[in-house]
Amino acid sequence: MASLRKVARPPSPYADPSSPPSFALPAPLRHRLQGLRARHLGVLWTEGTSVIVCAVLAFASLQMLADWLLDLPRAVRAILLTADLGVIGWLTYRGLVLPWCQRLTTATAALRAEKAIPTLRGCLISAVQFAHAKPDDAPLSTVLVADVVACASAAASQLIPSRIIPGKRALKLAAAAFAFTALVVAALVWQSDRSGALLRRLVLSAEPLPTLTQVVAVTENLRPTIGSDVELVAKASGRLPRSGWVHLVHQGGKKESLPLSPDADDPSVFKLKILNVRRSLDYRFVLGDGRGPKFEVSPLPAPALAGLDAEEMLPAYTGLGTLPRTPASLSLLAGSTLKLRISATLPLKSATLVPRGAGEPVPMKLVGTTSASGELLIPPADLDGFSIALVSADGAPSVDDTLYRIQIIQDQPPVITLIKPEAENETITLRASPVIEFEVADDFTLTALALCYQVTTPSETEQETVSETVRIPFPLPEGAASRRISHPWPLAKITPPPAIGATLTYWIEAADNNTASGPGRSESRRQQFSIVSLEAKRAEILERIGQTGDSLKTISDKQRKLSEEIDSLVTPSPSP
């Protein structure tokens, strides 16, 4: 069998090279593909931005209009704002973030171009793939790659971005966003006196609606006691309306609208009085085009006294200490302290002693949750009684507080009774020692007792000279409450001795131990000794004796005459 010979053949232009070729896309082609990628991202971002702008303007406009018409509460505005931010965030993700994350690569840009230009017949994507081939990929024919790249480069002039990626939809959305923005800005400028406040309310400002009439709340949330009367008050500013309304929503859902008229004294004030409030209700003032905020009236049970204990702490000078007292009948010594302890029907926030007639309210000290204690100083006068005002832990005040009357007992000053001399004015010589006898008594204890006198001396100019008061103290046993004293008073020991014709005025003074409202001081009636000479006194005595003799003779004559008359009546007359 004849052996076969190997015949040498010329190398094929498509034979596999020993190593893969290494090349890059031509610069014009690469720039066209990068422009295609940029246009794609720009178109998507334009559409996304236009949608976001329209959404923001639409949400803001609709919510500002709704707020203007309905005066949306802050909580509702917060919910709507949260929903707006959620929707805008989702649109931002879909219109801006997602296009960036899914932007075209060079290969996907080539595919979009071949889809739009069928005549390329795969040469563009092939050239891109060859350019991105790795060294360890399967070997490629250099001639084949060169042909593909040449074909793609020839088609580069056909890669017009506006033809491959149309932007009509983006332009329409951008035009709509621009027109919508212009319309909204024009409306905001047109309503510039209101739009600023509405925008601030959109971002949860607490300011009222920008109406011609603003409603200023005077009363807000109220917590009266059950059964009490409540007065709702609001004030109008800006344009003052001639009338207004109060919208009430009672517990249970019942709604009521009541008309209002301006106050007679102040036309900007509107009031409504609700009698005997027993259930909760919401209220809102509507004055002109202004609407006030909503407030609530929540009646609470009133606290009341469940128990009251009283003690009187008497002043220390009395030595009596503290004594129990009955609140229904309080007769208290001036200067003493009334100590009270109360218990209430509800937990307390505060308790206050309220004097009537004199003194300021006195806060009481809370003891536990339902008890309190306090003290009230008893003045010398003007205090008629006291009441106790309570405020519960919920803030409800007590009503119709009981008035506990007080009768103030005064510590009387000492009582002095002058016994001797009996005559208010006597003549006397300096040799005499008249006896001054008197009784003195006090409610508790005497602290001072004295015989006081003044000397009045006549002068040649017919003007009298009165000396300073001289006091002769009497000793007092400790704790003495009464005394009877008989005191001989030698006038010759008076220094300087009074002259003949002088008048000695004397009296008794006493003071007690009242350190609270006193001390109490008193004095006896004032009596006088007229200083005469011995001759004048003798003449006075003789004159008195003569006057006494004349009086005795007159009495004797009257007795004799009376006896004769009696005898004439008793003795029978002789018969004719």
Short synopsis of the structure:
This protein is an alpha+beta fold and 576 residues long. It has helices spanning 27-70, 74-101, 106-116, 123-131, 142-154, 161-164, 168-190, 192-202, 534-570, and strands at residues 213-217, 230-238, 244-250, 255-260, 269-274, 281-287, 290-291, 295-297, 305-313, 322-325, 330-333, 337-344, 348-356, 362-363, 365-367, 371-377, 385-392, 404-409, 415-420, 425-428, 435-441, 446-458, 464-466, 470-473, 482-488, 503-512, 521-523, 527-531. The chain is built from 9 helices and 28 strands.
End-to-end distance: 241 Å
Helical percent range? Answer: 25-40%
Give the total of domains. Answer: 4
> Structural class, judged by helices and strands?
alpha+beta
Mean pLDDT across all amino acids: 83
Tally of helical segments? 9
Describe the protein in words:
The protein contains nine helices and 28 strands. It has about 575 residues and is an alpha+beta fold. The protein folds into four domains: about 25-185, no CATH class; about 215-295, Sandwich (Immunoglobulin-like), CATH 2.60.40; about 310-410, Sandwich (Immunoglobulin-like), CATH 2.60.40.10; about 415-535, Immunoglobulin-like (Sandwich), CATH 2.60.40.
Describe the SSE topology:
Elements: H1 27-70, H2 74-101, H3 106-116, H4 123-131, H5 142-154, H6 161-164, H7 168-190, H8 192-202, E1 213-217, E2 230-238, E3 244-250, E4 255-260, E5 269-274, E6 281-287, E7 290-291, E8 295-297, E9 305-313, E10 322-325, E11 330-333, E12 337-344, E13 348-356, E14 362-363, E15 365-367, E16 371-377, E17 385-392, E18 404-409, E19 415-420, E20 425-428, E21 435-441, E22 446-458, E23 464-466, E24 470-473, E25 482-488, E26 503-512, E27 521-523, E28 527-531, H9 534-570
Parallel strand pairs: 11-18, 20-28
Antiparallel strand pairs: 1-2, 2-5, 3-4, 3-6, 6-7, 6-8, 9-10, 9-12, 12-16, 13-14, 13-17, 15-16, 17-18, 19-21, 21-25, 22-23, 22-24, 22-26, 26-27, 26-28
